[in-house]
Amino acid sequence: MKYSVGLPTSMEGMMYPIPFSSAQQVIQIAKHAEALGFHSVWGNDHMTTQKYVREKFPTPPNFWEPLITYAFIAAQTSKIKFGTGILVVAMRRDIVVLAKQLATLDHMSGGRVILGVGVGAYREEFEALHPAWEVNRGDVLEEGVFALRKLFSERAASYKGNYFKFDDVEMFPKPLQNPLPVFFGGNNANALRRAATLGQGWLGAAMSIEQVIQSVNKIREIAGQAGRDPGDIEPAIQLICYVGKTHEVAIQRFHHSQLYEHMLSLSKSTLKDQQGIALETINLIGMPDEIIEKISRLKDAGIRHFCGTYFCADTVSELLDQMEIFAKEVVPLVEPA
Predict the structure, then answer these.
(1) Handedness of CA 252, 37, 4, 304 (dihedral sign)
(2) Does the reported pTM lie above 0.85?
(3) Residue 301 CA to chain centroid, in angstroms?
(4) Are 80 and 33 contacting, i.e. CB atoms less than 8 angstroms apart?
(5) What are phi and psi of 287, to 5 degrees?
(6) Rounded distance between C-alpha atoms, residue 200 and residue 36, angstroms
(7) Closest to 44 in 3D by CA, of 81, 82, 100, 90
(8) Cα separation of 222 and 301, whole Å?
(9) How far is Cα 337 from Cα 332, in angstroms, rounded to an integer?
(10) Average pLDDT per consecutive 10 residues, the chain (337 residues; last block may be shorter)
(11) Distance of CA 75 to the CA centre of its chain
(12) Phi then psi for 138, rounded to 5 degrees?
């Protein structure tokens, strides 16, 4: 079983207060995660402030671009991997530049990059960046991954799609990893299909055990039909965590966190299929033994990676403490996969 940590690259105002972490503290969190033995850190990707964040906070958030952030972290760490959770392909229209950035980072880090991609939770953000680009973001995502694969695998790559076009591009070096692992984020049927046919992993979020079982089984079914080995696709899940001394303390802390407010904001988009489910029941909220039981059940459902776990915190100090409690009081007591 793999355990990783959500890195606050673009989380102020959504998942954490404003201000939350400086640039140096983001690096500190990643170094702390490596020291505690976490597999990877996963930073999200936002370019402009969401409307509901602007309405709530008088001060704008600091959003750190994840790939540049990882370049700095790679220079100060040696083992921990870096995942984008997620990188929104539709916001990055020059796919050749993106391919070059990813390949460069993979070499400079010694092969520690994991590319998590998705449609993006906030269409308003996409429209702010590209107001005249009327597209289906899911189609852009799939085409973008096809284009990246050609650039990563062919000496002189050409591509002519609906959204991305390039001709006779000799892009070297290729990524150090072959293939560069691609995880598709999302809970809907299209995300499962993309992971099963195009990816090395699937990254779901905040799902019930029943939904996880159905999703993992569907990925395995589609992968088999596509001639792929279902075992080559890693099922991962992104959850919120708070380890409390009592059940009541943990629930109260979760309900008073910015992460809880963020999940409510996603109830009409990314998490619309989770409406009616108590958020504390589908996240890692509770005492250590309660969280261990939830992890065990998710492992039995097919999850192999607790990917980019977000810890409830109002300060970096509280986040570091929660990471340490989880690493020392939860992880060692879960039977290894």
Answers:
(1) negative
(2) yes
(3) 20
(4) yes
(5) -75, 165
(6) 26
(7) 82
(8) 17
(9) 12
(10) 97 95 98 98 96 94 98 98 96 96 98 97 92 93 98 98 97 98 97 98 95 98 98 97 97 94 76 72 97 97 97 98 98 80
(11) 22
(12) -65, -40
